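Next comes a concrete protein, fold included:
___
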Amino acid sequence: MPSSLPILVVQVATVRASGMRWATRV
């Protein structure tokens, strides 16, 4: 298993959270 997998998951989660914040802001 690539050790970069957890990092990718965290990045995706951060992007989704950021997108939700943007949607709430707008």
The helical segments are 5-25.
